[in-house]
Design brief:
The protein is an alpha+beta fold. The chain has a 7-stranded mixed β-sheet, with helices on both faces. It is rod-shaped, with a radius of gyration of 34 Å. The N and C termini lie far apart (75 Å). The N terminus is likely disordered.
Length: 375
């Protein structure tokens, strides 16, 4: 059982996945081996936990022939295959037509489907997009897909999107032959654990973006008690990105529970118990993402309420100044009527008295309104 105790270290080498986008060609893992179908990234036979060395690149047909003759299992990795490219592999391994159609077309919901001699699992991969500052057009997360066909003696992965390379994961598994000797179910667990670890890292990064927006909305340095530096479009964009994240996480919880709780012919019992750990981490991420959604709703409502308060405050100030200006406007209107017989019209001190009364009334109104918080 020492091999099982080392399982976590093999498939989870670091507690924090790097969030920096790797733009090197190798990060996309799309190098094709000569003589293989154009979508095949890697094709290898594993026997007793070790990769079987061959004189040159193996085709899926050659790999399966070796497995049927000498035992072991074959692991084939494909990247965005066309229907024609995948047809031969589907026929060779007897894959169900419905699963093949889903694998080629992509844009599938995370799920687990059982067919006669295979399991078909869909994972959505999530990649955090680095940005200096969140804007109304910022892309926060990118999604891809990893689809897995698990059989008794084969494991096939179909990737869609530029992210989610499995090359490093394959190398780590090859460094632990005891684990790889458990067969295709060990590879399925490693991929599930790898995907969910990516969710955890992205959730931590999204949390930082939400904290930044929340700080700006409720900043203690607000002018007049109201935040004026947060655009509602930024909050709404972040909410849309969180919704995309939730669509990847929430549907996967049930498949992980099935893999951890229900005995399956194609899943090694020693590996199955470790799906519980994956399901537990996934449930934690789901709760975190649901919390993001609710928190962003609250932040958006608070920001809209603050905008309404700011508008009301501006209207009060405009109304207060209009009330002050109304006094001299009224006085000037009265004495601008040009009647011959008007009180104080020919009085020597009429002008200074009227001006003094006007100024006194304006100051009195200004003081009253300022005391009541209108100015």
């Amino acid at each position: 059982m020492s091999m099982i105790r080392d399982l976590r270290a093999v498939v989870r080498p670091s507690s924090r996945v790097s969030l920096r986008k790797d733009t090197s060609p190798s990060s996309y893992d799309t190098t094709r081996a000569p003589g293989t179908p154009s979508a095949v990234v890697d094709c290898a036979v594993y026997r007793d936990g070790a990769r079987v060395q061959s004189a040159g690149p193996l085709t899926p047909h050659e790999a399966m022939r070796l497995v049927r003759r000498d035992g072991g299992f074959v692991w084939i990795g494909l990247h965005e295959p066309t229907e024609a490219e995948f047809a031969g592999i589907a026929s060779e391994f007897g894959l169900h037509p419905l699963a093949v159609e889903d694998a080629v077309q992509a844009h599938q919901r995370p799920k687990l489907e059982r067919y006669d001699d295979s399991l078909f699992t869909v994972f959505k991969t999530i990649h955090y997009v680095e940005h200096d500052r969140l804007t109304a057009n910022s892309e926060v997360v990118e999604t891809g897909e990893v689809m897995c066909f698990t059989g008794r003696d084969f494991f096939i992965t179909v990737r869609h999107g530029g992210q989610g390379s499995l090359r490093a994961l394959r190398h780590r598994l090859q460094d632990d032959p005891e684990l790889l000797a458990k067969g295709p179910s060990a590879v399925l667990h490693a991929i599930a654990d790898h995907v969910v670890d990516g969710y955890i890292a992205v959730a931590d990064a999204v949390q930082d973006d939400i904290d930044e927006v929340e700080t700006e909305v409720f900043s203690p340095g607000r002018k007049g008690g109201v935040s004026r530096g947060v655009d509602s479009a930024r909050i709404y964009q972040l909410k849309r990105e969180v919704l995309e994240f939730k669509r990847a996480v929430a549907p996967l919880l049930r498949p992980m529970q099935l893999l951890s709780e229900r005995p399956m012919r194609l899943i090694d019992p020693d590996i199955q118990k470790y799906f519980r750990d994956v399901a537990d981490h996934l449930a934690r991420v789901q709760e975190q993402v649901m919390g993001f959604d609710e928190l962003l709703n609250s932040i958006l409502q608070a920001n809209l309420a603050q905008a309404s308060v700011a508008q009301n405050e501006d209207m009060r100030k405009i109304t207060a100044w209009a009330a002050i200006i109304a006094v001299p406007t009224m006085v000037c209107g009265v004495y601008g009527m040009n009647f011959d017989h008007m009180p104080e019209l020919h009085w020597k001190y009429g002008y200074p008295v009227i001006m003094g009364v006007t100024v006194a009334l304006c100051l009195g109104i200004h003081r009253t309104l300022k005391r009541n918080g209108w100015l």
